[in-house]
Specification:
With 471 residues, the chain is α/β, with parallel strands linked by helices. 31% of the residues lie in helices and 26% in strands. The longest helix is centred in the N-terminal third of the chain and has 24 residues. The protein is globular and about 70 Å long. The termini are far apart.
């Protein structure tokens, strides 16, 4: 294998995993990071929110403790302890990754901000002062994304915040208005509702690319958890109302507006690529507000320079996608024949209830004119879910009538984000319904719900009542 010198700008999940894989293959790696190892996901995204999600789960259980015959009085959340625990979890993971990187002698970690000089040269503005010039064979840009604000009037007011700022707050707002119905908005809305805020959700739509049945049902689930939920609505203006904030919002499909008042307003309108300071124009790299333009191999318009993860224009802002793209890129740079399938990506939403999906949705199946079968199994009929006291939701599966292959799975309910990988494994490996149906699933487990849904495609599910015959 040819010896290569590769510079990677950004040490988030995509960058550091690409660095490690490149080092495993014998490349000399220069890993450049201006902030913390682990990027947004570890420090300001996935891990902090899932740490909070665990607290929210416990609060949810405590609020329902009498269902289980347990009386718990006068419990309360300590915001400082919540914050301290998040910091501890993040620091432990950051330290672990730093140690992992340092265990590879052919990875040089360089603290500083990297910018392009030409197609083979990077200038690093070092954290401790000065600059350093590095010449390499290939460059991988993995600078990730940042929270973006909408153009709504009043977003510059004090108390109007992004997810980054909310995660730094020790206090739990009495009333939190969340603007945005994407993954970030729904997760924070669900978490803070359980932590003790009265959450008001203003969503233009619920999850852009999900099965329509889910987007219709989720608002009902949220309302059951006490959340004020408004859908098909846009925030038009934010104004001060004493020491509170008022959001004026208008429905998209009817001539009606509402006003809601809260202590904080979270703008969860999405994230934009971090391209500032990279000096992309010097190498002729094309980019726009969606990100750096790349081809099917994630190579930019400048030969030998690649862009992976949130910073490219592929439009899939997930840590596991960034990691997969990074590994794919360095393997190809090192001469390996690698493969990546961006059609089979598990999507997970840590809300109450959890939501996960992989493969095609029913709308996409219809758009592609695929002749299909569908089956749904309710968690209310699953013994483990009943034992847990978590019966909301269902498993929904789709298969092609032509070859009986599983083509889509959607799960709403307990541990959906863990269960979805059974569906991802089936679709990624082109498995047919029978190959899954003959796999024994342990009892009593939540995974039986997936098994029953699969059996339902063949009309052989034991715990699904047969359809009524038409008279």
């Amino acid at each position: 294998m040819v010896k290569k010198n590769i510079a990677i700008i950004g040490a988030g999940p995509g960058g550091y995993e690409a660095a490690i894989r490149g080092a495993q293959l014998g490349a000399n790696i220069y890993l450049i990071e201006g902030r913390e190892v682990g990027g947004t996901c570890l420090n300001r995204g996935c891990i902090p929110t899932k740490t909070y999600f665990r607290n929210a789960e416990i609060m949810n259980t405590l609020n329902r403790s009498e269902e289980f015959g347990i009386s718990v009085d006068n419990f309360k959340l300590d915001g400082k302890v919540l914050q301290d625990r998040k910091i501890k979890v993040v620091n432990q993971l950051v330290k672990g990754i730093e140690q992992l990187i340092s265990s590879y002698k052919n990875i040089e970690f360089i603290p500083g901000k990297g910018r392009l000089k030409d197609n083979r040269t990077i200038i690093v503005d070092l954290k401790d002062g000065g600059t350093r010039e590095i010449k390499v064979d290939n460059i991988v840009i993995a600078t990730g994304s940042k929270a973006t604000m909408t153009e709504t009037k009043g977003v510059d007011l004090e108390g109007v915040i992004t997810s980054d700022e909310l995660l730094e707050m020790e206090e739990i707002p009495e009333t939190l208005i969340v603007v945005g119905g994407g993954v970030i908005g729904l997760e924070f809305a669900s978490i803070y509702q359980e932590l003790g805020s009265q959450v008001i959700l203003l969503a233009s739509r619920i999850l852009k690319n999900i099965d329509k049945e889910i987007s219709r049902r989720l608002p009902m689930f949220f309302k059951k958890h006490g959340m004020e939920t408004y859908v098909d609505i846009r925030a038009k203006e934010i104004v001060k109302e004493g020491n509170k904030l008022k959001v004026i919002a208008r429905y998209k499909k009817k001539d009606k507006q509402i006003e809601v008042i809260g202590d904080k307003v979270l703008i969860a309108s999405g994230r934009g690529p971090v391209t500032d300071g990279l000096n992309l124009d010097s190498t002729g790299i094309e980019y726009d507000k969606k990100g750096i333009k790349v081809d099917e191999n994630f190579e930019t318009t400048a030969k030998g320079i690649y862009a992976i993860g949130d910073v490219n224009d592929v439009g899939i802002q997930l840590a596991h996608v960034a990691s997969s793209q990074g590994i794919y890129v360095v393997e190809n740079i090192m001469g390996m024949t690698s493969d990546i399938n961006l059609d089979v990506i598990p999507n997970c939403v840590f809300a109450f209830p959890e939501v996960a999906y992989v493969g095609l949705t029913e709308s996409q199946i219809k758009e592609q004119k695929i002749d299909y079968k569908t089956s749904k199994f309710l968690f209310a009929a699953n013994g483990k879910a009943l034992s847990l006291g978590e019966t909301e939701g269902f498993v929904k599966v789709f298969s092609s009538k032509e070859n009986d292959k599983v083509i889509g799975v959607t799960i709403v309910g307990p541990h959906a984000n863990d269960l979805i990988h059974e569906g991802a494994l089936a679709i990624a490996n082109n498995m047919d319904v029978d190959s899954i149906a003959r796999t024994i699933h342990a009892h009593p487990t939540l995974s039986e719900a997936f098994m029953e849904a699969i059996h339902g495609l063949e009309g052989r599910a034991i715990h699904i009542a047969p359809p009524r015959r038409k008279r």
